[in-house]
Design a protein that fits this description.
The protein is 28% helix and 24% strand. The chain has 7 helices and 10 strands. An 8-stranded mixed beta barrel has the order 1-2-3-5-7-8-9-10, surrounded by 4 helices. Strand 4 and strand 5 form a beta hairpin. Helix 4 crosses helix 5 and helix 5 packs across helix 6. The radius of gyration is 17 Å and the shape is globular. The relative contact order is 0.19.
């Protein structure tokens, strides 16, 4: 059974990337993941979201935006206050990028929310070799506490964690956070590639594996965190036009995906 097609990239999405991903997947992507940290980073270098070009592009494609929190060096501090403050900064960044009003975001039970996934990699893009339970506790708490826009409207984060299947310290931190503080991410974004990194063309859009071999959160030597993978990154760093790299993702078809993730992903205007 096929999942929901998504993609993500460190480069602002454009027509060339979108068209190539559509060709590779055989379906237009429902959403695209892009990086955020603070409002000052919007439109700047470092892979951060550029509202001046990307808002109109996402809107023209009716494509959902999945914000990815990019602050790997801060995660390594394993500090609650740093994590909490980063969540506030992340939410302010996406609020600012989408016009400053929480009403631009999906409304659920009378409040406004944005999906937000924490990129749990090292600054070099590798698997962390440290636990970050306290940082994660702070970040998840901050996402739940949310912020208010200038009109007093609440914007909170429906929070996920991204890491490689083999990143044992990431999944141990997730489990420790739940066992110690009773809080866990709302969703899991798992990287487990079914090809060699950078293969072009990448593999065809896959069926969701019935044996969960690529998306299980019980990898060799890791812990069982008791959550299904919602978004599976099945291919990484696929090269587009010898210029851009994209990662390709599939949403879990065994879940109500648009409730589990898509409902919380805004479409910029």
């Amino acid at each position: 059974m096929a999942g929901t097609p998504y993609a993500d990239s460190v480069t602002p999405v454009n027509e060339t990337m979108y068209s190539q991903v559509t060709s590779w997947m055989g379906h237009t992507p429902d959403g695209w993941g892009r990086y955020f940290y603070s409002p000052a980073d919007n439109g700047q270098t470092g892979g951060y979201y550029d509202p001046s070009t990307e808002n109109s592009f996402f809107h023209s494609k009716a494509m959902r935006l999945l914000p990815i929190a990019k602050q790997e060096a801060n995660i390594a501090t394993n500090d609650y206050s740093t994590g909490y403050n980063d969540a506030m900064t992340n939410l302010k960044a996406v609020l600012d990028a989408l016009g400053g009003s929480a009403t631009a975001f999906p409304q659920v039970n009378g409040l406004y929310w944005s999906a937000f996934v924490l990129d749990c990699e090292t600054v070099n893009g590798g698997n962390p070799d440290y636990l970050f339970t306290e940082y994660l506790y702070g970040w998840l708490s901050g996402m739940g506490a949310g912020i208010n826009d200038s009109a007093g409207n609440f914007l909170g984060g429906w929070a996920g964690v991204y890491s490689a299947q083999s990143a044992c310290d990431s999944w141990t931190s997730v489990l420790n956070c739940y066992n110690s503080y009773g809080i866990r991410p709302q969703f899991i974004h798992m990287a487990s590639w079914i090809d060699s990194e950078g293969t072009t063309p990448p593999p065809a859009f896959p069926s969701w594996p019935t044996n969960n071999s690529y998306t299980s959160t019980t990898a060799a030597g890791c812990v069982a965190i008791g959550q299904s993978t919602v978004l599976w990154q099945y291919a990484g760093n696929a090269l587009v036009a010898n210029q851009y790299t994209v990662d390709l993702d599939a949403g879990n078809p065994n879940l109500d995906f648009h409730t589990a993730l898509g409902q919380y992903c805004p479409i910029p205007s």
